[in-house]
Every structure is written in structure tokens, then in C-alpha cells.
């Protein structure tokens, strides 16, 4: 665990005591199910955000693979939810580790572009999903680019990808800094 742009913190990434502006990043499927892991916890805590995610999946399905979408938590102006679409389905049908890593790499690059240029490809997914943040923009305390990038050890739970492989993808995004929560 010696990647220079990744900092590790022991604790729960959903702790109520965290109050700085941050984007909580997680990897998810395109099937509209936040049914396990951190996604389940996000859905339980932020049901309106989960509703946005479901709407997005119902409209675009697997064409979301390799994309990043930012969704407000709606209850906390300091917390935005960053969805990396890395698998078509959840559970045992999520795909191979290699496909998840490939889509994670694409989604991280999409995230970097969207957060720091406030644009996307201009395609239908970006145009449609931009409305989520637009509806919430007046509640944001700082520009989205100033939010810290935080996550649990994505892909390593339900998706079963060894953490060092995902950590390497984070290292490749050398212009970004990530805080990773470990329990």
C-alpha cells in the first residue's frame, strides 16, 4: 500500500462525523440494484439518490459500463455519490475480474474529465445525468472539483477483484488524490 496518490484511513466511510465536502466513490452495476456492500448502505441511507441511480439504469442499462455519474446524497450538501459503472449485473453474474478492471479504468478516466472540466462526452448519458447535480447545485458549499475523492476498497468485496489491482488503476490517475477507508 505505497501508492503516492492514495491515502489510507481506518474507519467507516459513512461515519456521521465526516463533514468535509467529498465524493464517496463506489463501483456499481448497471442493473439498478444497490443490493449489497457499500451500495446497499448508500441506498438505505440515501433513498432519493438510489432512486436516481435506478432511473439511470432503467434508461441506459449496460451502456453505462465504463461511465461515471455523480448523484447528490440530497440530505447532506457535503456528500456527493460517485458511481463507477463497472459491471452489467451484481452478485455472482457481475463479470470477470478483468472486465471489471477494464470498466473501472474507463470510469475513473470519465470521472477525472467530468469532475475537473465540468463536462462529459456530451452524449445522452451525460446530458441526462447532469440534471441530478443541477437540481442540487445551489446547495453545494464549494465547486465539485474541490470535493475530496473518497472510497472504500472498491471492487474487492462482492465483485471479488483483489484490491492491489484496483489500487494500481488509482495510481494511474496520478493527477487525482484518493482517500481509501479500511475497516
Q: What is the end-to-end distance?
A: 15 Å
Q: Output the radius of gyration.
A: 15 Å
- CATH C-level class is Alpha Beta
The CATH superfamily label reads Leucine Aminopeptidase, subunit E, domain 1
Mean pLDDT: 89
CATH topology: Leucine Aminopeptidase, subunit E, domain 1
- Share in β-strands: 15-25%
Count every helix, treating DSSP H or I runs of 4 or more residues as helices: 5
Q: How many structural domains are formed by the residues?
A: 1
User: Based on the structure given, which CATH architecture is correct?
Assistant: 3-Layer(aba) Sandwich
The major beta sheet can be summarized as: 6 strands, mixed
How do the strands of the widest beta sheet line up side by side? Answer: 1-6-5-2-4-3
Low-confidence stretches: none
EC number: 3.1.3.84
Organism: Lachancea thermotolerans (strain ATCC 56472 / CBS 6340 / NRRL Y-8284) (Yeast)
Enzyme class: hydrolase
Protein name: ADP-ribose 1''-phosphate phosphatase
Amino acid at each position: 500500500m505505497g501508492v503516492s496518490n492514495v491515502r489510507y484511513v481506518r474507519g467507516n466511510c459513512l461515519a456521521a462525523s465526516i463533514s468535509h465536502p467529498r465524493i464517496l466513490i463506489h463501483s456499481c452495476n448497471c442493473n439498478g440494484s444497490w443490493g449489497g456492500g457499500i451500495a446497499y448502505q448508500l441506498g438505505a441511507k440515501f433513498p432519493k439518490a438510489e432512486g436516481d441511480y435506478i432511473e439511470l439504469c432503467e434508461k441506459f442499462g449496460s451502456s453505462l459500463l465504463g461511465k461515471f455519474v455523480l448523484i447528490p446524497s440530497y440530505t447532506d450538501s457535503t456528500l456527493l455519490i460517485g458511481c463507477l459503472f463497472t459491471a452489467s449485473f451484481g452478485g455472482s453474474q457481475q463479470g470477470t475480474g478483468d472486465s471489471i478492471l477494464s470498466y473501472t479504468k474507463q470510469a475513473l478516466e470519465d470521472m477525472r474529465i467530468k469532475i475537473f472540466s465540468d463536462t462529459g462526452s456530451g452524449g445522452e448519458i451525460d446530458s441526462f445525468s447532469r440534471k441530478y447535480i443541477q437540481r442540487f447545485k445551489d446547495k453545494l458549499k464549494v465547486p465539485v472539483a474541490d470535493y475530496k475523492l473518497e472510497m472504500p476498497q472498491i471492487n474487492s468485496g462482492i465483485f471479488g477483484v483483489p484490491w492491489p489491482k484496483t489500487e494500481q488503476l488509482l495510481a494511474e490517475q496520478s493527477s487525482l488524490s484518493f482517500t481509501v477507508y479500511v475497516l
